[in-house]
Amino acid sequence: MGNPLLGLVFHWLGGLSSASFYVPYKGIRKWSWEIFWLTGGIVSWLVAPWLFASLQTRDLLAVLAATPRETLFWCWLFGALWGLGGLTFGLTMRYLGLSLGMAVALGLTTAFGTLVPPLFDGTFADKLLSNTSGRVILAGVVVTLLGIVLVALAGKAKEAELSNEAKTAAVSEFNLKKGLAVAVFSGIMSACFAFGLAAGEPIRKLSLEHGTGVLWQGLPVLCVVLLGGLTTNLVWCGGLILKNRSAGEWLGRRQGAGAPLALNFGLCALGGLAWYLQFFFYTMGESQMGRFGFSSWTLHMASIIIFSTLWGFALKEWAAASKKTRGLVIAGIAVLVGSTVVIGLGNALAV
Fold first, then answer.
1. Is Transmembrane helix one of the keywords (predicted)?
2. Residue range 14-19: average pLDDT?
3. What's the average model confidence in pLDDT over 3-11?
4. I want to staple 192 with a disulfide (CB 3.0 to 4.6 A). Which of 4, 10, 81, 332 is the partner?
5. Region class of 9: left (phi > 0), else alpha (psi between -120 and 50), else beta
6. In this predicted model, what pLDDT tens digit does every residue of 40-94 receive, in sequence order?
7. From the CB of residue 156, how many other CB atoms can be counted at a distance below 10 Å?
8. Reduced 3-state DSSP string for the chain
């Protein structure tokens, strides 16, 4: 029997981790994007998932060896497709900033990642329309999308109010058109992570059968899905490294001459660990949501936007915006907080 309120807390922790992961990257000096992205990513997609899964899963290798190859393939493939979204996700924040970039990209990710799985497996009506719990959860999803719209409108209003100098002071490479195009692609492709987690249900069952605790049952799934993400990112960043001849930056050479290597590696490790922890807490939260586990994706996305917007305030991205615009984004945050409570209540009604 799950505990949806405890699950909600875990999803908030995951959202905080996700919203915070890019902050350490801002302190990296004299490294190209592909160098710090891949360095942090190796921690996110390879080191951390296998380390935590090895510590918390009973017979990890035996669980994965017993998993049908078809399941492993789909988890890996959806992870690879998600990798395309993850690549452009970093560029989204680069061009739009933390708050606006995450609002647009994650809005699309929320809608696709939450609603497509039950539509695909034919359980949408049974889970969301035929009972009170499902209808409350569906209402919470709608409220989440409303909150995302409010935050995005606030970002658009901020963009209209600021001078070019003020925009670049907050986000040095601000570019609305390029940023929105990248955010749309990133948002749609990033939803594939939810599909990968759903495809990993047989792995969770095997994990439980081998004696793994309920809270940790999803960790082996992350190992496989994130290998797919590593594949895509390794190919893309490897191509950029060859093209830009930037590999020497890891040793403080070429463009990276004089780079603070210890600091850069430390910041990448911190950012990479924070990124992984979002799904570490996600799997814990999902384990508490019972038959409405797919609603975890909405909770996760809403939590990320809440905390990323708060980071946007802390990093002065909204400092030059009008009082009215700041009020609009605060209203969006309030609606998103309310949506997580509504979804949590819907799950609690099913217990």
1. yes
2. 90
3. 85
4. 81
5. alpha
6. 999 999 999 999 999 999 999 999 999 999 999 999 999 999 999 877 877 777 7
7. 17
8. CCCHHHHHHHHHHHHHHHHHCCCHHHHCCCCCHHHHHHHHHHHHHHHHHHHHHHHHCCCHHHHHHHCCHHHHHHHHHHHHHHHHHHHHHHHHHHHHCHHHHHHHHHHHHHHHHHHHHHHHCCCHHHHHHCCHHHHHHHHHHHHHHHHHHHHHHHHHHHHHHCCHHHHHHHCCCCCHHHHHHHHHHHHHHHCHHHHHHHHCHHHHHHHHHCCCCHHHCCHHHHHHHHHHHHHHHHHHHHHHHHHHCCHHHHHCCHHHCCCCHHHHHHHHHHHHHHHHHHHHHHHHHHCCCHHHHHHHHHHHHHHHHHHHHHHHHHCCCCCCCCHHHHHHHHHHHHHHHHHHHHHHHHHHHCC
Highest mean predicted confidence (pLDDT) among 112-121, 255-264, 311-320? 255-264
Residue 279 has which token pair?
Answer: 């799904």
Identify whether the C-beta of residue 184 lies closer than 8 Å to the C-beta of residue 45.
no
pLDDT band at 306 (very low <50, low <70, confident <90, very high): confident
Contact predicate 256/249, CB 8 Å: yes
- Residue 151: name the closest of 332, 281, 335, 338 by CA: 332
125 or 179, which is more confident: 179
d(C-alpha 268, C-alpha 271), whole Å: 5
Residue 288: phi, psi to the nearest 5? -100, 0
